[in-house]
Amino acid sequence: MARKGTSIRLSSSRISSSLLLSMFATFASFYVAGRLWQESQTRVHLISELHRVTGQGKSAISVDDTLKIIACREQKKTLAALEMELSAARQQGFVPKRTTDGTETKKRPLVVIGIMTSLGNKKKRDAVRQAWMGTGASLKKIETEKGVIARFVIGRSANKGDSMDKSIDAENSQTDDFIILDDVVEAPEEASKKVKLFFAYAADRWDAQFYAKANDNIYVNMDVLGSTLAAHLGNPRAYIGCMKSGEVFSEPNQKWYEPEWWKFGDKKSYFRHAYGEMYVITHALARFVSINRDILHAYAHDDVSTGSWFVGLDVKHVDEGKFCCSAWSSEAICAGV
After folding, report:
1. Integer Cα distance of 26 and 150 in angstroms
2. Does domain 111-240+274-336 correspond to CATH entry 3.90.550.50?
3. pLDDT per residue as tens digits for the range 54-71
4. Pairing mode of beta strands 148-156, 178-185
5. In this predicted structure, what is the pLDDT of residue 57?
6. What's the rounded Cα separation, in Å, for the pair 104 and 206?
């Protein structure tokens, strides 16, 4: 009888174990089936959403790729919103605005003007300071209120460290309104290099909307300049000035002699470029000059050189009569003095 009881208990134990295993397997099957059903429903939902958005009908695209597409679309919407905010900010002008805590936010300068000057031209510089550029507090006021940064641009004497260099250093210590290019020798044949290095230096130092080259014998109307440039904020690669083209002079005894005249073809005619008294380029073009300063060619005249740098680029040439400095009027930007 003891053996029989033991056998019955062993049989009951095996039945219980089998029942538990069966129940566990059943529950596991339900769980797996539920997860598979949930995943399939998710796939159906994502694919239907993709079809609704793209209108492409049936697709074999994976769920992972679908999620990437949806994420990219969301990022695109975010970027579009940021671009709209940036565009609106640019239309607000160039006067610094105050934040809610009363501090001023740093506003992007409208334009950096490089006034090309020479070692012996102090009288001209003083005339420019008195007429439109200002000095000291008035110079800073123009920068903060109008967003116009003006600096004289000069190289070094052929005999570096001589009395002429020391005179410029002394003048700059009083006025603090120079960009001194140590790698440029003050000479007519270095004019193109001087302009090129000014654009490079200014683009590296100031994140302005525009960069202008001007001579030290012209008067600049700041208000007209500001309103004119504001109209071109939507042109990222604009080259603005009093545009011209004309004969390339091939004889050494001619005033505007071009030693490399043969590069301009049999008709010896210049491509379209701005008069050298004053012209403006946008931030993107100034950055292009900065990045490529070592390989941009310099012709005999700086206005021709500047025009040549943009011939092969997708640049908008803006022929603006207000930059024709020889014809002064109340609406002109510049005038010879």
Report:
1. 83
2. yes
3. 555 444 556 566 566 666
4. parallel
5. 47
6. 18
Of 104 and 289, the structure prediction assigns the larger pLDDT to 289
User: What ranges in the chain are assigned the alpha helix state H?
Assistant: 2-54, 63-90, 122-128, 136-146, 163-175, 191-205, 222-230, 283-291, 302-309
| Residue 94 near residue 229, CB atoms below 8 Å | no
Q: What is the mean pLDDT of residues 107-111?
A: 93
Task: For the chain, give the number of residues.
Answer: 337
For residue 319, count CB atoms less than 10 angstroms from its CB and return exposed for 0-12, middle for 13-18, buried for 19 or more.
Answer: middle
Mind giving me the DSSP string for 153-190?
Answer: EEEE-SSTTSHHHHHHHHHHHHH--EEEEEEEESSGGG
Asked if residue 210 lies in contact with residue 282, where contact means CB atoms within 8 angstroms, the answer is yes
Distance separating alpha carbons of residues 292 and 284, to the nearest angstrom: 12
Average pLDDT, integer, range 320-330: 76
Q: Is 309 helix (H, G, I), strand (E, B) or coil?
A: helix
Strand, coil or helix: 209: coil
Q: Is the pTM of this model over 0.70?
A: no
